[in-house]
């Protein structure tokens, strides 16, 4: 996901902001297994989907950009051989944007995964006050990846327990393994004086949420923009503070604080000491690098507002078009699955990308839509899978 940092805990991708903040998400069941095709049925004709020409144009451009990766990536969902995309990708390369609707109508068919009942959240690219150089009031450092963050097995861990990838941590001067510094330690200066600062930001609360998103824009007092993106994570536990606040009865109900990103931020501002303690329960810390282009999703393609959706690659092919019809009408339309997310699990769970700016923040921060989803596949795919 622009790859949203919580999505990237333990990997690269992302968690939708509201999910990251702790909203309970009763999403669909886990992704299909080897019997994938048994959980797929035909959907309606693409021509019956009420997308606009503008919507189709954006989807076509996003699909075209995704094709190089779509053709070479293994389809973890098991639904389709990547080579099956070749013909529609060849067509997309020269298809006129002004006639994008006909492209999807003529060359795609829809598939419903399981019952098709979808749940979607939203994410965006935050813009906060920041500077490449330290300025008065800009006191929170943005760190690059430290060179002592390594993957290693603790010496006292038996060989029989060493499965998968070694955990992230650091090795001290005596060769002993330790968990890496957590959020509170880093905020307390554990990395100070090592030349890792690439920027400084003005508001630590805004930076906390930018870390959750995994990328964003820093704007200095002269209006100059520096884009930063996810470089790595400290390997420590992620805690969704929205859930903590709700469990403690501090937001929701008659507290005066909504269970949304905006409500959570307001609580943190109104209760700075308590808020700092709660934010430090999230031990995860994100390291950044400067970006020379816009943020990219897990597909390696620059994400675009209103066109990019994060999906579960175990459930559907990354790069494929998706149709959403939700009770949040702003999210209705054609999307391209160009990103992933740690909380985005199952065939009908999505995270919609809204770009940057205040409108994007408002839509993403309040996005919690339910409805119907269809996956779009090249015509003839369902026949080849024996789905009638």
List keywords for this structure.
peptidoglycan lytic exotransglycosylase, lyase, Barwin-like endoglucanases, alpha+beta, EC 4.2.2.n1, 24% strand, six-stranded mixed beta barrel, globular, MltA_B, 388 residues
Write structural notes for this entry.
The protein is of the alpha+beta class and 388 residues long. It has a domain at 6-123 and 298-384: Beta Barrel (Barwin-like endoglucanases). Helix content is 24%, strand content 24%. It contains eleven helices and 17 strands. Strands 3-16-13-15-14-17 form a six-stranded mixed barrel. The chain has a six-stranded mixed sheet with strand order 5-9-4-10-11-12, with helices on one face. Strand 14 and strand 15 (333-339) form a beta hairpin. Helix 2 (53-72) crosses helix 3 (86-94) and helix 8 (261-270) crosses helix 9 (272-279). The longest helix has 20 residues, at 53-72. The radius of gyration is 22 Å and the shape is globular. The model is unreliable at 3-34 (pLDDT under 50). Pfam families: 3D (PF06725), MltA (PF03562). One of its GO terms (cellular component) is outer membrane. This is peptidoglycan lytic exotransglycosylase. Keywords: Cell wall biogenesis/degradation, Lyase, Signal. It is an enzyme of class 4 (lyase).
Please state the CA-atom Rg, rounded to the nearest Å: 22 Å
What structural class is derived from the secondary structure elements? alpha+beta
Hey, roughly how much beta strand do the residues contain? 15-25%
Helix content: 10-25%
What is the overall number of helices? Answer: 11
Task: Give the biggest beta sheet.
Answer: 6 strands, mixed, barrel
| Series of secondary-structure elements, N-terminal to C-terminal | HEHHHEEEEEEEHEHEEHHHEEEEEHEH
Task: Trace the largest sheet across and list its strands.
Answer: 3-16-13-15-14-17
State the distance separating the first and last CA atoms. Answer: 34 Å
Here the CATH topology of the domain at 6-123 and 298-384 equals Barwin-like endoglucanases
CATH hierarchy class name of the domain at 6-123 and 298-384: Mainly Beta
Tally of DSSP β-strands: 17
> Uncertain regions: pLDDT < 50 for 5+ in a row?
3-34
**Name of the CATH architecture of the domain at 6-123 and 298-384:** Beta Barrel
* Name of the CATH homologous superfamily of the domain at 6-123 and 298-384: RlpA-like domain
EC number: 4.2.2.n1
Pfam families: 3D, MltA
Domain Lytic transglycosylase MltA: 127-289
Enzyme class: lyase
């Amino acid at each position: 996901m622009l790859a949203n940092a919580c999505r990237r805990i333990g990997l690269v991708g992302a968690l939708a902001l509201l999910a990251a903040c702790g909203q309970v998400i009763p999403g669909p069941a886990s992704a299909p297994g080897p019997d994938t095709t048994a959980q797929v049925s035909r959907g309606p004709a693409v021509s019956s989907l009420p997308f606009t020409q503008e919507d189709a144009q954006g989807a076509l451009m996003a699909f075209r950009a995704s094709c190089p990766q779509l053709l070479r990536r293994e389809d973890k969902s098991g639904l389709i051989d990547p080579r099956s995309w070749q013909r529609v990708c060849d067509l997309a390369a020269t298809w006129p944007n002004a006639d994008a609707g006909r492209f999807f109508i003529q060359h795609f068919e829809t598939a419903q995964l399981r019952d098709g009942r979808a749940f979607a959240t939203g994410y965006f690219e935050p813009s906060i006050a920041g500077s490449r150089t330290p300025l008065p009031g800009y006191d929170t450092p943005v760190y690059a990846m430290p060179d002592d963050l390594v993957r290693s097995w603790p010496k006292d861990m038996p060989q029989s327990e060493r499965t998968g990838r070694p955990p992230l941590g650091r090795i001290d001067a005596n060769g002993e393994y330790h968990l890496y510094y957590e959020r509170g330690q880093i905020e307390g200066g554990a990395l100070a004086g090592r030349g890792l600062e690439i920027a400084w930001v003005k508001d630590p609360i805004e930076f906390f949420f930018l870390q959750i998103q995994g990328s964003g824009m820093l704007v200095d007092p002269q209006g100059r923009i520096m884009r930063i993106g996810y470089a790595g994570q400290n390997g420590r536990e992620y805690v969704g503070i929205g859930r903590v606040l709700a469990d403690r009865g501090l937001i929701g109900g008659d507290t005066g604080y909504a269970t949304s990103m905006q409500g959570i931020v307001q609580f943190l501002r109104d209760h700075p000491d308590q808020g700092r303690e709660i934010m430090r329960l999230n031990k995860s810390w994100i390291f950044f690098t400067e970006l020379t282009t816009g943020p990219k999703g897990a597909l390696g393609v620059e994400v675009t507002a209103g066109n990019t959706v994060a999906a579960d690659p175990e459930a559907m092919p990354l790069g494929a078009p998706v149709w959403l019809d939700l009770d949040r009408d702003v999210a209705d339309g054609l999307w391209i699955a160009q990103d992933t997310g740690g909380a985005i699990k199952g065939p009908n769970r999505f995270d919609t990308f809204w770009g940057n700016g205040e409108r994007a923040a408002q839509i993403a921060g309040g996005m919690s839509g339910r409805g119907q989803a269809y996956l779009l596949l090249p015509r003839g795919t369902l026949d080849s899978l024996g789905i009638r």
